[in-house]
Amino acid sequence: MRSICSIKFLFLCVLYGAVSQIVIVRQGVISGKTEISAKGRHYMSFEGIPYSTPPIGKNRFMEVNDLQPWVGVWNATRTSSSCMQYEPFSNAVIGFLSTGDRVVPGNAGLKDQYHAMLWVKDNIKMFGANIFSRSLFSSGSALSSWSYQQDPDFQSDSTFLPELNDNWENLASSLYQCSLPLEKRRQVTARIKEYYFNNQSIGQETYPQLVQSLGDRLFYSNIGKFLKMAASRSDLPIYAFRYSFRGEKSLSNMIGLNNNDYGVSHSDDLFRVFVLPHFELNRADDLAMIDLLINIIYSFATDGLNSTNGRLTKSTKLLKTVESNSRKKNEIDFEWLPVDKDSEELNLLEISAPNNLKMMSNNIRINKVITR
Ligand SMILES: *[C@@H]1O[C@H](CO)[C@@H](O)[C@H](O)[C@H]1NC(C)=O
Ligand SMILES: *[C@@H]1O[C@H](CO)[C@@H](O)[C@H](O)[C@H]1NC(C)=O
Ligand SMILES: *[C@@H]1O[C@H](CO)[C@@H](O)[C@H](O)[C@H]1NC(C)=O
């Protein structure tokens, strides 16, 4: 049996296979419920299980610590309110706030995620899972310590772009999160303007460049750094993918409260794996994409990749799905290359359609622009 836990939804663990509704974990008894997936499969769901002490009161900024056992049965059929307050905590700014001393030691968000992983390690066998074969998958902020909320309203707000243009040096240094000494701001923001905008004004015509540059800075830069750091500290190969399939709906429409096509947004892949209220998808290509993403995660967790040559083995369910989604067989004949810690290019598996997967590499441009 395999388990998949989402770090973004730390309190949600979905376990496949025959698991009892009552499970005894280290701190006590929990009770979950049976749910039915979009494709009609039954699974047990346990939500809102506490895994560490909430960071409230005197623990507000401190590293979360040991959890006390409870008496009776913990109702794990709903996300508990303490977890609800908790989740924004770890992902939002406070999760990464530090005063550089013992008052706010910092990195509480990461330490919190670490506690969640320890909890899984300690308890997963009680759910019947193989403790030597866990797959953890996570999305977005959990990886990149990203706290900035992408706001598509920028484009429709008639004052934002002109203000940004007129006040570029000041606004750009906070928008791009350049924590720079004042004297360097002019130089760096001018470099961004030259590199991405070719010195043109910021406005409706250069909006795509603005989106590209913010995407590079707020995602690729940190995700790229993180992946290379992980690759250089681990013997295991690290594989990354880039999801670029728009589909019928995107998170950007939920944030922007409209149906504009802003392209693909942060978490659009996640919301094709986990069902989000008001995000039901029925279009044929979306349904095929849901299948593909679930198969990628499943086959990665069960069969893994053939690490001898980095090639997806022919036996994997992933390959079968891609083959059946693809008219041209040669589209699947590629190697999923691991992250190369010594390269300036970041290797990514590009998932751009249910029948189109290929390797690409992304030059982490903004790092050069900002840290030259
Ligand atoms: C658990 O919580 C759910 C949702 O609030 C509720 O419907 C259910 O009755 C609770 N179960 C127990 C045993 O308290
Ligand atoms: C862009 O503007 C800067 C001054 O702000 C100038 O040094 C640079 O040469 C310009 N680059 C281009 C391509 O025009
Ligand atoms: C992995 O690839 C190597 C080289 O192509 C091959 O010899 C080996 O049998 C493969 N292993 C699996 C498990 O497919």
UniProtKB/TrEMBL annotation:
Residues 1-20 form the signal peptide. Residues 21-90, 93-130, 171-356 form the Carboxylesterase type B domain. The keyword Cytoplasm does not apply. Keywords: Glycoprotein, Signal. The keyword Chaperone does not apply. It comes from the Eukaryota. This is Carboxylesterase type B domain-containing protein. It comes from Leptidea sinapis.
